[in-house]
Amino acid sequence: MDGVSSKLIKFELMKSQVEMSLEKCIEIGRTVEAALLHANGSSESTENIFFYQQRIRNTGTRPKHKQNNNSKQHSIKCFCCGKENHVKADCRLIKKFCSECGQQGHIYKMCSKKRQISTLEAKQPEEDAEEPEENVIQNSFQEEYKTYSVSVSRVPPHYITLNICGFDLKFLLDTGSDVTVMSINDKNLYFNSLIIQDSNVLFRNFDQSITKPLGILTNLSVKYNEVTKILNIFVVKDNAPRVIGRDWLNELNLWPPNLSNNFEIGTNLIQNVSDAQQLVKSEFAEVFSPGLGNFKGETISLKLKPDAKPRCLPVRRVPFALREKVNNEITRLLNNGRITEVEQSEWGTPVVPILKPDGSVRLCGDYKLTVNPCLEIDHFPLPHVDDILDTLKQGEYYCELDLKEAYLQAPLSSESKNCTTIVTEAGTFKYNYLPYGVSSGPGAFQRLMMRKLKNIPNTIVFIDNIYIKGKDVQDTYETLCQVLKKLQDSEFKLKLEKCKLFTTSLAVFGFHVNKNGISVIKSNIEPLLNAKTPTNLTLLKSFLGKINYYARFLKNMATVLTPLYECTQKNNFSWTLECEKAFQIIKRKLASAGNLRHYDPTLALILTCDASDTGLGAVLSNRDENGVVKPIAFASKKLNKVEQKYATIDKEALAVVFGITKFYNYIYGRYFELETDNAALVRIFGPTKSIPKMAAKRLQHYAIFLSAFNYKVRHIKSSENPADFLSRIVENENEKLEIHSLCATANSSIVCYTNESQMDTLNWKKIQIESKKDRVFSKVIRYLTDGWPEKKELDSEILPLYNRKTELTLDRGCIFWGYRILVPQPIRKAVLTELHKSHFGIVRMKEIARSYFWWPSLDVDIDNITKECLICLQNCKSPPQTQKPWPIPPSPWYRIHADFLGPFYNKMFLVVVDSFSKWPEVYEMSNITSNRTIDVFKSLFTRFGYPVHLVTDNGRTFTSQEFFNFCKSNQIKHTFTPPYHPATNGAAERFVETFKSAITKIRESGHSLVSAVNLFLFDYSSTPQHTTGVSPSRLMLGREIRNRFSLLRPPPISDIVQEKVGKREEGNRQLKFELGQKVMVRDYRKGGKPWVQGLIVEDSIPGVSYIIDVEGVKWKRHVNQMMACSQSLEYVQAVD
């Protein structure tokens, strides 16, 4: 019925509620036409009734009888419609547009530019219309397209889908049209390479206007079902719909239509957004299903430079709080086939776990120092922002698709997998799919997506984001289906919660895109518009500096700001009514100023960041060819109470991460300049320099996050920083801001926190108080807050701290070097006394200290502890002998060593040591019978389970039949040491020796035997071993036990086991003794101490042996039987 122009006929046809055949419709139409003829008393034939009614509708008057010639001579002719008896101003068609020239105010027949077809028009309005000429085709297509849908029945039009030269296009089915047509827009979109041929055919529309098509496309391959034809199609101007006429219907065996048979006429239009969303989700459920996709097609190759040398870095220790999550992520990647475990590899990159908002972690390889410098970067161009905005312009509806973990869906070539190998505590793994952090990732993935989604109209891809537009819901749905079909065939998967389907607007790269155009998102400049009245001179100058920076957007700025400039020239800050008025006016001018500069990827990109005591600020700018820097967008954020207590360097670093996170879509994948007014960050965040080892964990995580970006960091003065004002004017209201998961979880990543303990002795609060009093530490605290002066201006005692200035942080008034707290001078002696309370050796004390605290002369002070402790000197043990070790067991409590100790202080003890973790167990034994020993082992095994292997000596208890049956029943392998060679049971024997020496020293310090045993076992199990590098409790229990030194750490106390700091020194003992020097010499007399004090009186063999005066008796001793001691020690008489 689209071809029926008479409203009366349409109304009669729509009145029927039943389905009618074509013959019945024609019969009703002719009946209405006859009734109209009879009502008007006309003798016109039914063939001309259409034109008759059309004239009535166009002119608004009925045709009149012819007048005589005299009346015609005095008539006035209208220049709009050509009729007489009225002027153009009174014509009812004055608002009509000419179909020939497009101008308003006249119709086609009165156009001066019309072609020579005037014979088709009647000279008098009352004359009947003539039949169309031979070269004029009657066509229901209208140049100015209108949708003739009847609101009463709401019957949608029907479409038929045809394949034309490989494109599936839908055509409006119009049985009243003689020819098939498409618009010039469709031609340029799908057949841009084809040439339009000239055509002499003219179209007569249903309103009797004559139009000429732009031309004709010939020799098109058209396929419908099993029928394929070579056909021609007419091309018309404007954005008209695609219409299939009777010419193509006949060629495709669809004419005449048999409505009673299975005549497929396409699908109805989708007009409801919710229906379209539901239909897409159901049709492409596989694309939105859980899990990762596996791209089916080409692989991505990472090309190494010819001179590339493999590099393998050591494993980076994972925080214990994240270890389980990291293991779960590794297991997930293994199960999904994203990674594969390897035995060894020339390449090795440590990983950094990044917490996601949902609590899971993402494994990111730190490829900055391994693979990235060796890669030939894929410079496949990313789409320009102008291209994206041009694609999305004039769209009614939009879609944005986000690939789920996009890189992990793109497989790597076999030769590219080895260089992506990561090293973790759980093993070494190589990636089978593209990992995050590889510099060639953006270009390579963009190339893959462009190849897959090419030739899809109104669609553009930016790495893992796909943008789609449509002129209506149906058009958007058709384009979206093409994209989803490609993704489904390639086995890609999308993240549904991040996809936007059939929205009327879209936020793309900081721009708000809708059908009306493109505008800057106003929220980017809201911090400036919502600035409160300055309360001091600093804020006023900062505000003026910011306004001056954007002076090119403001008219008469200098005049408006005169009161504010005068306010800055006064000695005292005085805010007047004129100042307030100027302040409000300039803000209104800024709000009404033109849009900020559009992002131009061809110009240099600058990100400027700054932080104040209460907020963060960032400005993204472009620098043009003339060196003029203009802003693109602003961002600011108020610091919460915890972040406000950060050190200055931490706030400045957080501002950098905030700026990059806020403008992530602008800067990711391209080179940019990073500006900051903090000089220390230039060293830490420099992309060509490694991350400082002792930098605070927070800064280390930030630096790793920035390693995925390509940038150059530059230091600028604070007065030149445009982000300074934004960081000072943030609102107090809580602001919801999408920020990178690294920033959201920064508080849980840092280990430098203080304990809230109320302990009155040695704790962090005392360090906090003494740090403020200490002359050196108070200066360092001020430098960390306000910035460091030049090196030449510092005292020599501050230089050791200045050399570590990029690694020092401030937390609650305490200074930290990495994770170690700095102890001020007044309480260092108390800390050393507490450290030496267990009388451990130098190496063990240094390992404890390196896990908790530090000061510049710490190592020297620890060396002097043992030399000044007479108890340690008198009970020092001889150096251990070298022997072949037992094989390393695969797990804790796999092989244990047991031995009896005593009599020791008239007591017998059973000693058990785990060979893997060095975990000790000591039991006081009332007797050492087999039954008593078996009872102790049963109690022990109830806590830790049965071991696989037990090693003991040949004592009667262990060789008894009862003990043999006990081991056999529990399937424990029992191994005896060789007779008279106790060193075979080295683990137990060494522990027995350590135990006796330590207990003796602790006992002589005034502790009871039970207290001494408990203190020794507590400190021994929590102290890192030099053979394993970690404490027995960490290996045995999987955690560190809380001890008295844990109080020195600020809360929350982390369970991280620090990396082994030093190596154990072995052999090459070099000592030089001089005459008259006090030394400790070995005493072989029975009942005496192992070592006694003596005086060197002469050298027997220089450098080898000496004569020592001991209690008036001269002894000859080798250097291996001598030890140096402090010369300040008083001579002590040996006690028998």
Automatic annotation (TrEMBL):
Residues 169-183 form the Peptidase A2 domain. Residues 77-92, 98-113 form the CCHC-type domain. It comes from Papilio machaon. One of its GO terms (cellular component) is DNA polymerase complex. Gene3D superfamilies: 1.10.340.70, 3.10.20.370, 3.30.70.270, Acid Proteases, HIV Type 1 Reverse Transcriptase, subunit A, domain 1, Ribonuclease H-like superfamily/Ribonuclease H, Zinc finger, CCHC-type. Keywords: Aspartyl protease, DNA integration, DNA-binding, Endonuclease, Hydrolase, Magnesium, Metal-binding, Multifunctional enzyme, Nuclease, Nucleotidyltransferase, Protease, RNA-binding, RNA-directed DNA polymerase, Transferase, Zinc, Zinc-finger. The keyword Zinc applies. One of its GO terms (biological process) is DNA integration. The keyword Nucleotidyltransferase applies. It comes from the Eukaryota. One of its GO terms (molecular function) is endonuclease activity. Its EC number is 2.7.7.49. It is an enzyme of class 2 (transferase). This is RNA-directed DNA polymerase. Residues 888-1040 form the Integrase catalytic domain.
